[in-house]
Design brief:
This is F-box domain-containing protein. The protein is an alpha+beta fold. Helix content is 32%, strand content 16%. The longest helix is centred in the N-terminal third of the chain and has 14 residues.
Length: 201
């Protein structure tokens, strides 16, 4: 005589089963942080393997629960003289991919530079999931020092009216930056048109 307890999950209403799936795949795992502070959430898929009906009902919930997002939105990259962040730039290019950038609505590049010290010249790369699609370059120093980059990519440099920031006397070495930008535009082709137009902020 079979004394196995029957599986009663399918006796529940479909709405309640979906709630159970959402809870099962919820983000309760430890944060998986790397050099970019990218946090991934990969739910266990054991439940999907139990039977076809559960798979058909739960696979979309599982996909939605799988997340890739940036813990930090800003990364400051020194590309002026000594390439101290060259390894970081290469790591950034490897880690940027379509599934990681698909929820990022804004990618902003800002250039900074002060006359006081070489290390003050750097690039701020910011990711944001809650704004209109845009890829911009804003100069916080001497626009002429970025003229080569501006000509190559057709950017509109939006010079802010800040009088206490002096022109940056150095020349930005853009080799690593170009690799990074090429990677971004490859995985986010929807940004290409606005990027080529040099749209203002």
């Amino acid at each position: 005589m079979d004394t196995t307890t029957p599986f009663r999950l399918f006796d529940l209403p479909a709405e309640l089963r979906l709630t159970i799936y959402e809870y099962t795949f919820s983000d309760n795992a430890p944060a998986d942080l790397d050099l970019l502070n990218i946090q991934d959430h990969h739910p266990r898929c054991d439940l999907l393997k139990t039977c076809h009906q559960i798979y058909n009902e739960a696979h979309q919930t599982y996909t939605q629960a799988t997340k890739h997002f940036f813990q930090n939105r800003s990364y400051y990259l020194n590309i002026t003289y000594d390439h101290t962040d060259e390894d970081f730039m290469k790591f950034l290019c490897r880690r940027l991919s379509q599934h990681r950038l698909k929820d990022q609505k804004t990618i902003t590049l800002r250039f900074f530079g002060l006359e006081t010290h070489q290390a003050d010249g750097f690039v701020s790369l910011e990711f944001s999931p809650d704004a209109q699609d845009l890829l911009t370059a804003r100069s916080h120093n001497n626009v002429e020092s970025l003229g080569e980059i501006a000509r190559i990519f057709g950017w509109v440099m939006n010079q802010p009216r800040v009088h206490d920031i002096k022109p940056f006397p150095g020349k930005i070495d853009s080799r690593e930056l170009m690799v990074c930008l090429a990677t971004i535009l490859k995985v986010r082709p929807d940004l290409r048109e606005m990027f080529d137009r040099g749209q203002k902020v």
